[in-house]
Structures are given as structure tokens and as C-alpha cells.
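WARN no homologs supplied; continuing
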Amino acid sequence: MSNEYRNDRDVVNRRSRTTERPVRYREEDYYNYDEAPRPRASRQVRPAGPGSEQPRRGAGRPGPGPQGRPSARPGYSQQGRPRNPQQGRPAGRPAASRDPYAPGPQPDARLRRPVQGYAQPGPACEPPRSSGNGGRNTPPPRGRNAQPPRGRDTGSRGRSVQPPRGGKAPRKKNPFKSFIKTVFITLLILLVIGLGLSFVMTKKAYSLMTYEEAGDLDKEKLTADGVTNILLIGNDSRTNGEDGRSDAMILVSISSKTGKILMTSVLRDIYVEIPGYGSNRLNAAYSWGGPELLMKTIEQNFDIPVSRYVLVNFEAFANVVDAVGGIDLELTPDEVIWLNAYLNEYNELRGKEFGYDYIYQLEGGMLHLNGAQALAYSRNRYIGMDFGRTERQRKVMEEIIKKLPGTVIRDFGGFVEALCPNLTTNLTFTECYTLLLRAPFALRYERVSGSLPLENTWWNENIDSMAVLGVDFEANKAYLKENLYYAPKKETEEAESVE
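OK structure emitted
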């Protein structure tokens, strides 16, 4: 390759690097054949063969001058430029065929602007200047209007600054939105953890219970019209699974309409209609047909749907009181005497000596009771008859409910092992899990205690040589409906009704 051709290429490539994007100019973009004609010497290429010489590179060109440079032809400068701009071929004369390896004319500053109408070649026309180094070997820009190379600018302190896209400044983060997002994610994580713990707790407790069906009542919904009714049956059997009498019946109703938890004791001596058996005492329904017949009897006589039950024996009652750490109740002197009397029977059943767990504070007052003492206190029916006994049972239940949340958090395993093995129910696992999830919301409900029949709605009767209670069922039905299904009136409406 001749020096003229090499210099020509170097000038074009070197000057094209000064712009933001490399530009390669074609020969016809800056060469005007009318003003700067230059005859081209075609290169003679002959096929190689025997007896033939290979053409020398650059054959047909002027020979070298005195200093090894190409000799100038008449009318042309040493660089190949025409001395007379008017000299040349006529306008419109087509370009002669040229050797692709022949050197082009030297670029001139006034002829370097591309011809209008030609698109400037893109980066694909320029060979890569560096291999995988991010353009760090690219020569620095030159000239007054030269732009810095694109890419990351680390600045004087070494910090990486990415130029904004589209010419827009980056948006600043809203701290309030970030705080809300953090709180939401935290609450979501806590919710998932709570649901998982509730599931594990319910599964462990339910595995220790005894499940027994209640016939067609199992097909009914747990909650109807916003009210969940569960019948707690206190069986006087001493061990789980043993048949006995229904010593106590408490209807627990959770109403989302009125925001109340109603614990209603149902007296066992009420004279009622038993489906399929005629009229008799209420506790006879449990003796004849178990929990299923007892729930159907209550539903028929008091017009309230009951389809779920939990059966508790003596041992479970005493164990749950011990699991919560005992309860504090105020007893009268007579109640202390009868409590010790009922303890004699329970001590004999569990193989304890006479006088075990006695209360020697005979004057009464605020006393701390353990499981056995609370059971003896609840069974006393000689003070206040059956009404007094059910009232004492509700007092014990209320004290257990107060201490239940702390006990579950402190010693859930011990509480479950003390209570659940002595429970029998027709609640399914899903229903138990649902009740556990609703428990935190139900704790803020108003707790109301009562008994059926209501005061002044009953009378003593003797039917078939049985001492029973006659009841005004319509008045008692209205009491249940008002506390479970009718939402309380607003104060404004009450004030208007008074006016």
C-alpha cells in the first residue's frame, strides 16, 4: 500500500473520531469531478500462469520522485490536487472505472461536508475501536463543540452518576408512601404468622377431643342469622365417655347483631315437651336420647336453633380451673360449709383422704379456690335451690373466661392437655378453627348472664308425682330474641320516643 493511500485513510479515520458518532465519508461525498478531476490509473490484474509475471502492486502509477514520493504530473501538485481548478473533464462526464485499491484524493476542509440527501453511516460502518472495555480506549474528544462520550460519569469523587433518561430528573421518593408500604407489609407478615399459629393450636387441641355425631343436626350451619349457639352440658359422670345425667346445661350464644355473649343456664326441672317421648323434665331428654335429643327439645320449646354441643365431665371442670391457676370468689359462711361437704364425695372418688382440700376459713369472705373446691362450690343446690346453683356455675365460668387468654399465652400446652381429653363434641375441626379466629373479636362483646326460666315467669307444679317447674315459654322466647337477634336502638331514636 502506498504512502499516499495510507495517509488518505489515516486522515479520514482520525478526523472522524472527533465527532460524537464516528462518520465514514464515501469518496463521492467529498469529491467533485467537475472541479477536481484526477485521472485514475487502472490496475492491471492478469491471471497467474506459467511464464507470466505477477503484477506489481501499484502498477500503472507514476514512479517515485527523488525523495521516494510520487512524482507530480503536469498540472497537479505533489499531493495530487489540480493546480488549475478549471482543468478537468466536461460536466456530466461519468466517472471512469477505478481500482478499489487506488488511493482517493486528500480530503479538503471545504469539501468534507456530506452531500445533502445521503444518510450518514451508523456505527455498523465503523470497525470497533475497543473490545469489551466499555469504550475506555476511545481517544478523548477534540474541538470546542466536542461532546463527552456517553456512559457513566464517575465524577471527581468516584461516585457513579447515571444520566437521566429522556432528559427528566429522577423522581424523589415519598416518605409517607414508603412508611405506609412498610406498615402494610409488616401487618401482612404478622397476619400470616397468626393464622399459622392458630391452625397449629387448633389442630393440637382438636386431636385430644372426642368427636361424636349428633344425627341430622350436624348438617345445619354453625352460625345462623349472625348467632352461634353452643350448648355446654355438664355431665355428672366421673370419667370421659361414661353415661350420666345432665347435671348442668348452659347455652352459650355469640351474637354479632347485638354484640353480646349470652350465657344462659337452663334449669333441668323445667317441664317440657320432648320430641317423640311426651312431656317430662328437661334433663330426661339427655337420659333418653343424649345430646341430640336434648338440643332438639330446647329448640322446640324455646324457639332457638341449637345444633352444636360440648360435653364436660367433673374431671374436666376441675382441671380447667387448675389450669388457669384457680379463681377468686367471695363465699358466705354457709357456702363454705356446703363446699366442704361436697368435697367429701369428690375426695372419695379420686382416692384422697377425708378432709383433703378443706377450707378452714369458716367465716367466708374472698377466697382462692382450686379445681376441686370450685367444683364442690358449683354443685351446691341446697342454698338457693336450682336457681342458686346455676348462678354459682355462671360465676365460675365468668372467672375462667377472664383468666383464659393469659393462660393460653403462658401455657397453652398445659391448658389443652388438662381440658381437651375430657371433652366430647360434634364440632368439626374447621368449625373449631373458625371459632378460634373469631375469639379476639368476641372478647370485646358484652357478656350477659341469665337463666331460664326468667324471674316471675315460672311456678311450682307437681305432675305425675314429680316436682317440676311450669314456665311461661312466650316470655322466655321474647327474652332470647331481644338479646340475640334485635340490635339495640340508637340513643336518638330512644330520645324521640320519650318525647
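The chain has two domains: 1-31+100-130, 209-498.
OK
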